[in-house]
């Protein structure tokens, strides 16, 4: 009997010394309720409660507000490496360069602007795919601007050339779009392009879903790389959540109550009441009982 009581109160989190002291005072045949009352009277607390550190006391929630719920931390605020929580970036170099060159010139500076934008956000895995024949000297029918940037990005292991060769004077080019989608799919990353890759969507149903959900379109405004704040539309995730592996749910915005202080809904009101921030979250009946000092238990019995 002694061992069973010891095990029972140890599971509740009380220390063995306190349990033995109470059992010596009350006797081995004491009821569990009496032992528990004596432990509480002695001021003994379960170890789980003692080990908890509470820098700030819990506050009652004001009616219609969410001030007591702690705000969720944004990525990187807890001191961890923010690059681990960001998705890999795969850039369609040809699409970005031609967009920056107004579809007339292959502007390598546009690729550099896109890479710098993602680096500033903390992305560490950035790959740019460009056909190998872009290393050749520019021709009149395919002008290239700032071609030296390609060599610099290649040294930084950011730029990857897709294979191409010449057969009997004709250039044979591998499909670079397939490289882009395949790498982004395997890395669970984001594709940066204004191309919809419709042929690849029809080729593979898994790629179709991935392209629809992970395609990040963009615009260039005065040499400024600008992706949209809502990549998947008005009701989709924000740009920060879109580029993160662990999206953060948006904070709920509370609308002030149109009735103000005249509102009679009490704690059931779904609107925000700034004048009730310091009031307890109790029902109207409970508040009346508290004011008249009537025990809640008696009030519930009367209601029954």
Automatic annotation (TrEMBL):
Q: Name one GO cellular component term.
A: cytoplasmic ribonucleoprotein granule
Q: Which GO terms describe its molecular function?
A: hydrolase activity; mRNA binding; RNA endonuclease activity; zinc ion binding
PROSITE patterns on file:
ZF_C3H1
- Top-level taxon: Eukaryota
| Tagged with keyword Zinc-finger | yes
- Which residue stretches, if any, does this entry annotate as coiled coil? none
**Family designation:** Belongs to the ZC3H12 family.
The UniProt record lists the keyword ATP-binding:
no
For the C3H1-type domain, which residue ranges apply?
A: 245-276
Q: Kindly provide the name given to this protein in its UniProt entry.
A: ZC12D ribonuclease
Where on this chain are zinc fingers (C3H1-type) annotated?
Answer: 245-276
Instruction: Supply the alphabetized keyword list.
Output: Endonuclease, Hydrolase, Magnesium, Metal-binding, Nuclease, Zinc, Zinc-finger
Cofactor(s) recorded in Swiss-Prot or TrEMBL: Mg(2+)
């Amino acid at each position: 009997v002694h061992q069973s009581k010891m095990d029972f109160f140890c599971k509740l989190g009380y220390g063995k010394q306190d349990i033995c002291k109470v059992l010596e005072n009350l006797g081995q045949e004491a009821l569990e309720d009496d032992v528990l009352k004596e432990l509480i009277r002695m001021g003994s607390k379960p170890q789980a409660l003692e080990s908890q550190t509470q820098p700030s006391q819990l506050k009652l929630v004001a009616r219609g507000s969410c001030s007591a719920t702690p705000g969720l931390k944004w990525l990187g605020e807890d001191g961890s490496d923010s690059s681990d929580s960001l998705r890999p970036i795969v850039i369609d170099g040809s699409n970005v360069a031609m967009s920056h060159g107004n579809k007339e010139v292959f502007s390598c500076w546009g690729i550099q602007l896109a890479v710098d934008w993602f680096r500033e956000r903390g992305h560490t895995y950035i790959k740019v795919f460009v056909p190998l024949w872009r290393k050749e000297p520019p021709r009149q029918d395919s002008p290239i601007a700032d071609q030296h940037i390609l060599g610099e990005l290649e040294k930084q292991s950011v730029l990857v050339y897709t294979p191409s060769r010449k057969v009997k004077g004709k250039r044979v080019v591998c499909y670079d779009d397939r490289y882009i989608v395949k790498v982004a799919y395997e890395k669970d990353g984001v594709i940066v392009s204004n191309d919809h890759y419709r042929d690849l969507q029809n080729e593979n149903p898994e790629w179709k879903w991935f392209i629809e959900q992970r395609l990040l379109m963009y615009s260039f405004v005065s040499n400024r790389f600008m992706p949209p704040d809502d990549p998947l539309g008005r009701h989709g995730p924000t740009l920060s959540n879109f580029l993160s592996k662990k999206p953060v749910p948006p904070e709920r915005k509370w609308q002030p109550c149109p009735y103000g202080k005249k509102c009679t809904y009490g704690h059931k009101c779904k609107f925000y009441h700034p004048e009730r921030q310091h009031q307890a979250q109790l029902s109207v009946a409970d508040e009346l009982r508290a004011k008249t000092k009537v025990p809640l238990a008696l009030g519930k019995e009367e209601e029954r």
